[in-house]
Amino acid sequence: MHPARAAAEDESGPSAVFWPQTGRAAAMPRLLDLDERGELTAAHVRLVAQALGKSERTVWRWLAAALQDQRFARVEASRFTITAEIRRLLALWGGNASRVHAELMQRAAEDPDAPAVPSLSTLHRAIRRDLTRGERAGLKSGEAARRAHDVFGQRPPTHRNAVWEGDHKHVPVEVNVEGELATPWVTWFIDCATKAITGVAVTAHAPSRDAVLASLRIAITRSEPFGPWAGCPVRSGWIGARSSCARRSPRRWARSPSP
After folding, report:
1. What are the pLDDT digits (tens) for 2-42?
2. Residues 155-176: pLDDT tens digits?
3. Over the chain, what is the mean pLDDT?
4. What domains appear along the chain, each with residue ranges and CATH number?
5. CB within 8 Å of 232: residues ≥ 6 apart
6. Is-contact 63 49, C-beta < 8 A?
7. Contact 72, 28 (CB under 8 A)
8. Which of these, 20, 98, 22, lies nearest to 59 by C-alpha position?
9. Which residues contact 116 (CB under 8 A, 6 or more apart)?
10. How far lies 150's CA from each of 43, 138, 164, in Å?
11. Among 83, 142, 146, 189, which residue's Cβ finds the most Cβ atoms within 10 Å?
């Protein structure tokens, strides 16, 4: 065996039979019980090490921690995470982590009770870990940059009216509908090649067949005030084909699959 490989196996042990995290939590109480009865041997530790894919030295270290403070699992160190306030500051400063860090430092200097300020490198790591690539692009360059990372409407280049997709959106605003507050729903069709909205309908109730037919009528009507994006698509489908959207569509549209 290669010396480097032998050294690695001596440190990390053979292939694990059980996950180390769950195996450690299950094995430590049993080893402690054996130790209390004076029956613990190196063979017991070796068996646990082989089952968990760890070295015997590691298992002895786990056992020492369990004897000292009854700790049967690894203690995860607390880490800095992006909070709603940090998101607000990132939006305010256009995604500039250095400016956000400077403002946090200024707040800490002015307010002794302010939360501890992480280092700039820690802030950068938290941004990369907690924010998606699209969110980071949007904070820096705007909504268009964020949308460039969305999977919505991402299809091979094609021509107008080759494929449409339909969807419903519950708008989180309240409007006055005949004296009563309601949160409207928007039903629309989008042309995947151009990202143009070909038809849209807004209803004060949950979307049903009437909303689908209304938006579809606008989408296929080419006369004024509709068009010129209107027409008849080669294929069509719904975002999330298993949702109730397809069941509300006319039969030939619901059966028309998206590529």
Report:
1. 333 333 344 444 566 777 777 888 888 888 888 888 999 99
2. 677 888 888 888 888 888 888 8
3. 79
4. 3-69 (no CATH), 84-147 (no CATH), 163-254 (3.30.420.10)
5. 161, 220
6. no
7. yes
8. 20
9. 108
10. 55, 11, 17
11. 189
Nearest to 65 by CA among 19, 36, 43, 32: 32
Question: How many residues can be counted in the chain?
Answer: 259
Task: Compute the distance between CA of residue 82 and CA of residue 128 in angstroms, rounded to an integer.
Answer: 10
> What's the N-to-C CA distance of the chain in angstroms?
52
* Other Cβ atoms closer than 10 A to 86: 20
Amino acid residing at 126? A
